[in-house]
Write a structure and sequence with these properties.
Helices cover 22% and strands 29% of the residues. By secondary structure, the protein is an alpha+beta fold. Strands 1, 2, 3, 4, 5, 6, 7, 8 and 18 form a nine-stranded antiparallel β-sheet that branches. It is globular, with a radius of gyration of 20 Å. It binds pyridoxal-5'-phosphate.
Length: 339
């Protein structure tokens, strides 16, 4: 195990032993290649640089009490990368190649998988981009797929403690018939104005409203939104939301635990009626929200009034994290192992 201050790790890049790479050229994917370099040599006319042909994924590896390294629902990340590739006409990565690259990069960096019980995990970042040269707007003929890893702590500094969010009305991360439901870099570029604006005001992340009418809650920074009331887990349905694998898992967990689930448009006017609200995602895990400020109207919504996360968010968090780290039996078949 490398010597890092595991329980204090930020969500940031740490250099590891190596990354893995594969190339699509002349109609076929290469074998994977292991690289110790943190750099890539890219053609100046690569479509990723000019026309945004780029997509990525975010997933994690967890070390259990038994010291085994676990992956959580990696196939879902592969499927979403397929959707992203198809959405912007990139060459999809075959499932077996994706799996082999994930397993290889984790196993070659296993001393960077944080110890069990530290709250940290190994973040895995698959990245697919058009590396072939084009000057006119068109899809590339060549693609590069890279997977790197970095050990990370909680995404929101508060960890599993109430965090503060601000509603932005002047930024959309994606358009209804655009790319909001796939994980392409352009959505994040479009979100940056909102991210920096709310950070300057002392908030952890922006809440985006639906791009068309600004009436409904979309999502929160790099996480989905959920609200809880009357023993019901409610999460927005919208064409501009990234389909979160964490949220999909929480929906299944909530049903398994006997809660009701609703996935439907959630009007902003409903916000004040929730007993608990939170953000969920691979990086955010389940982050309870204590305060939401509307930067347009100045209205402040308060939750977790006793300063603690609500009981249902806590139950869902403990069960999800327990399954991911192997402390709780996985009844869903979500976890697989890296040898
Ligand atoms: C915009 C956005 N929404 C939601 C999520 C959460 O998705 P997941 O749970 O699959 O990590 C992410 C992170 O990938 C994201 O970037």
């Amino acid at each position: 195990m490398v010597d890092l201050n595991w329980s204090q790790l930020p969500f940031a890049y740490v250099k590891t032993n190596c990354n893995v790479r594969a190339y699509y050229k002349n109609g076929e994917w290469s074998q994977l290649e292991v690289s110790e370099s943190e750099h890539i040599d890219v053609h100046i006319a690569a479509t990723a640089l000019h026309y945004g042909q780029q997509a990525f994924e975010g997933m994690k590896a967890y070390r259990g009490k038994d010291d085994k390294i676990r992956l959580f629902r990696w196939e879902e990340n592969w499927k979403r990368l397929q959707d992203s590739a198809n959405g912007i006409l990139m060459q999809p990565v075959p499932k077996e190649l994706f799996h082999e690259m994930i397993k290889t990069v984790v196993s070659k960096n296993k001393e960077f998988v944080p110890p069990h019980g530290t709250g940290a995990s190994l973040y895995i970042r698959p990245l697919l981009f058009g590396s072939g040269a084009k000057v006119g707007v068109s899809p590339a003929d060549e693609y590069t797929f890279i997977v790197f890893v970095t050990p990370v702590g909680p995404y929101f500094k508060a960890g599993f403690n109430p965090t503060k969010i601000a509603i932005v009305h002047d930024t959309d991360r994606a358009a209804p018939l655009g790319t909001g439901a796939i994980k392409v870099g352009g959505n994040y570029a479009a979100s940056l104005r909102g991210v920096i604006r709310v950070q300057k005001e002392g908030y952890g992340a922006p809440m985006y409203l639906d791009a068309k009418e600004k009436k409904y809650i979309d999502e929160i920074g790099a996480a989905n939104f959920f609200g809880i009331k009357d023993n019901t887990y409610i999460t927005p349905a919208s064409p501009t939301i990234l389909p979160s694998i964490t949220n999909k898992s929480i929906v299944e967990l909530a049903e398994h635990l006997g809660y009701k689930v609703e996935r439907r448009p959630v009007p902003l006017t409903e916000l004040e009626t929730f007993e608990e609200v939170g953000a969920c995602g691979t990086a955010a895990v389940i982050s309870p929200i204590g305060e939401i400020k509307d930067l347009d109207s100045g209205r402040v919504y308060q939750f977790c009034k006793d300063g603690k996360p609500g009981p249902i968010s806590t139950k869902l968090y403990e069960t999800l994290v327990g399954i991911q780290s192997g402390d709780i039996e996985d009844p869903f078949g979500w976890v697989s192992f890296v040898e």
